[in-house]
Design brief:
This protein has 587 residues and is mainly beta. It has eight helices and 28 strands. Among the domains are: 79 residues, Carboxypeptidase-like, regulatory domain (Immunoglobulin-like, Sandwich); 126 residues, Ferric Hydroxamate Uptake Protein, Chain A, domain 1 (Beta Complex), CATH 2.170.130. It is 11% helix and 43% strand.
Length: 587
Amino acid sequence: MKHKLLSFFVGSMILTSVAFAQEKKVSGRVTGADGKPLAGVTIAVQGSNVATQTDGNGNYSISVPAGKVIVFRSVGYSDRTLIVKEGQSAFNVILDNSDNSLEEVVVTALGVKREKRELGYSAEQVSTKTLNQASAVNIANGLQGKVAGLNVTTTSSSVNEDVKINLRGIRSLTGKNDPLLVLDGVQMDIKYLSSLNPNDVENVSVLKGGASAAIYGPDARNGVIMVTTKKGADIPSVNLSHSTQWQNISFFPKLQKQFGQGSDGEINPVENWSWGPAFDGSTINIGPKLPDGSQQTTTYSGTDERQKFYNTGVTNQTGLSLTAKDFFLSVEDALVKGIVPDDKNRRTGVRLNSKKEFGVFKAGINMNYSQQNYDLFNQIGQENYFAAQNTGGNSGLFSQLINTPADILLTKYKDYKNDKFSTYENWFTNYGLNPYFSIGNWRKEGKKQDFLANLDLGLKAADWLNFTYRASITSRNIAERNKTIGVNPSKWAQNRGKSIIPGSIEEYNYNQTILSSDFFADVNTKIDDDFTFKGILGTYVRQNDWRQTNVGANNLVVSELYNLSNRIGILSGSSNGYRTRLFFILR
C-alpha cells in the first residue's frame, strides 16, 4: 500500500513539473521601422484570452505555452505573428507601417469619395453600426456624441421630437445655425433628417471646415451633414428588426410639501397658491360649494400627485429590409406614445434604392416616402385662452401642474367629462385649469408627408475623367387641424371667472417642392510621380416653391362638428407663398 501511494505522488510530481515546463515567460521590446519604441501594442496568445500590452518604452512580458502563436497588433501597423519554440524566451519585434491605414475613404462634397489623408479640412464619418448602436428613432439622436464638435440638443420631448444641430458654433444672430443636409448627393434642409429611417443609412460624413462646404455655396456656411443610404449587396439578405424604448421625465423640480393652498397663512378653498398654513392632516374643503349643495373635501397633507401626471413614453420601432445585387428595399413603422397623456405619433416609411452599371455608363435611382400621423395637445390653444383672461403667465401645461397645491389629488380628476368636480366650471380654483381638461379640450391632429427622390447618371469618359448628372425632387406636405371642443359654462360658473370657451377649428396646410439638378466633371489624373491633379467643375440649378395657408372658424354653432361652414361670423386666415430660383457654378 505504501509503495502504491509513493508511486502516485511521484507520478503527480512528474505531471506537474511537465505542466509548468510547458508554459514559459516571454519578454522583449517592440519598435517601429524607425527604431523608436511603440507603446500600447497588444500582444495576444492566439486562440486564448491571454493578452498584454507594451509599456511606454515598448517593453512587454507574457506567459505563453510552448508551441503557441503570439500576435503583435497595433493601429496603423501590420500584424506580426511568432511561434514560441522550446528554449526561446526573448523576442524583439519590429512592426511595419500598414498601407491600409492610409486608405480610409470619406464621402465628400457632391458624393465624391476621397482618401482622408488627401483632405485639407476636417471630415468625420459615422458608420451605420455606430449610428444605430442605441436603436435611435431619428438620425440626429443617433449622431449625438459620435462626432467631435457636433452638438445635438433636444428642444422638445414631444412625440414630434425636435432637435437643434450645431456644427460650427453660433454664426448667426437670427438663430439660423443649422448645417446643410446632403442626402445621396442632393442638397436639402436639415429638417428632412427626421424623415429618414436610421436603418437605411450606410454612413454619415460630417464636413466641418469652411473649405469642405465651399462647393455648396452659402447654404453650407454652417457645415454639411452628408447621408449616404444603402444601395445593395452581392449577397441577398432579408433583415427584420424591432426595438422598444421607454421614456420618463428625467428631472422634476423639487416642490415643497409643507404648506398647502391659501394665502397669508390662511386656507382658501378656491386658491391655487400654496401660501396657506402648514399641513396638519385635517380634513378641509376645497373648491366652492356647487349649486347642487355638494362640497368637495380632502386631507390637508402633502402628496407627490403632480409628478404622477406624466406617463411613461413608449416607442416601438419595426423595420424590414430586402437587399439584393443593385437593389435595396425597406419599410419601417415607428409608433411613439408620449409622456403627455394621449399624445402619439406614427411614422411609416418606405425606401427603394437601385443602381446598375452598363460598361462605362451607370444609372441609379433613390426614392423615400415617409408619412407621420400625429395627435397632440395644442398648447397654443391654451395660451390663447389665458391671454384672453389677461393671465398669460399661466399659459403652459407644466404651469398648471406646479400651480396645483400639494394637497390636491391631481390624478383623480382625469374624467373631466363625467366627474362633476373635474369639469371646467367646477374645478376647485378660480384661477387655473384642470390639466386633464386642457389636454382634452385643445388638440392638434396632423399628417406630414415627405417624398424624396433623385436620379443619378454617370459616364466614365476616361480613367481620369467622370461625368455625373443628378436630378432630384424634394417635397413636403403638412395638413393640420387645431381643434377646440369648447365649453358654455353656467351663469354661476361665469360669475367665478369661468368664461365661455367657444368651439373652434383652424386648418393649416404647408407645401414645399424643390426641384434641382447638377452636372459636374470629376478629374483625377497623375501628372508625374510627385504630383496628382484632382478637381470638380460643374453647375447647379434649383427651384423652390413654398406656400403656407391657414383658415379658421372661431365660433362653431354645433359643438365638435369640425367644419368651416359650421360657424358664426367670418372666416379668419392667411396665405403666403413664394418661388425662388438659384444657379451657381461648382468648382
